[in-house]
Amino acid sequence: MVKPDGVASGLTGEIVSRIERRGFSVVALEKRTMAREVAEEHYGEHRERPFFGELVEFITSGPVVMLAVEGPEGTIDALRRMAGSTNPLDADPGTIRGDYATDVGQNVVHSSDAVESATRELALHFGAGIAG
Fold first, then answer.
1. Contact (Cβ atoms closer than 8 angstroms) between residue 121 and residue 129
2. Main-chain dihedrals φ then ψ at residue 75, nearest 5 degrees
């Protein structure tokens, strides 16, 4: 997902291009403003954390671009390496966050951390057909 700060900064095309140049396929893409209920479910594992409210407020503050990406085994790990560390101050140059993000709370992209979370997130945002 390209988060609201990435969309507002005009980075969607660059991010999609990086993914495609790496050899992965974007099989679904949709720009939308995420509903609060969807955001709360998307980030449900963080519900008890002190930053949950701020996270939901930010992710619903403007349009996001949802992406479903396919590739060989290891694609999730590769996409996470491309994204860079969650904290942009720790992200390596050449990663999306290392190149474009400045704040841990607004760090340009989200990528699923495991097959299980990817399946859940794809179903939440695109429906069961794309997650299966």
1. no
2. -60, -40
Please report where in the chains the tokens 């503050």 appear, as a residue. 61
Q: Catalytic one among 42, 46, 110, 125?
A: 110
pTM greater than 0.85: yes
pLDDT digits (tens, 9 = 90+) for 62-104: 999 999 999 999 999 999 999 999 999 999 999 999 999 999 9
Residues linked to residue 2 through DSSP beta bridges, in sequence order: 65, 109
Check if the beta carbon of residue 68 is closer than 8 Å to that of residue 27. Answer: yes
The verdict on whether 42 is a catalytic residue reads no
User: Distance between CA 57 and CA 4 in Å, rounded?
Assistant: 11
Tokens of 81: 């390496």
Q: Label residue 84 left, alpha or beta by phi (over 0 means left) and psi (-120 to 50 means alpha).
A: left
Query: What letter does residue 109 receive in the DSSP assignment?
Result: B
Domains and CATH numbers, the chain: 4-126 (3.30.70.141)
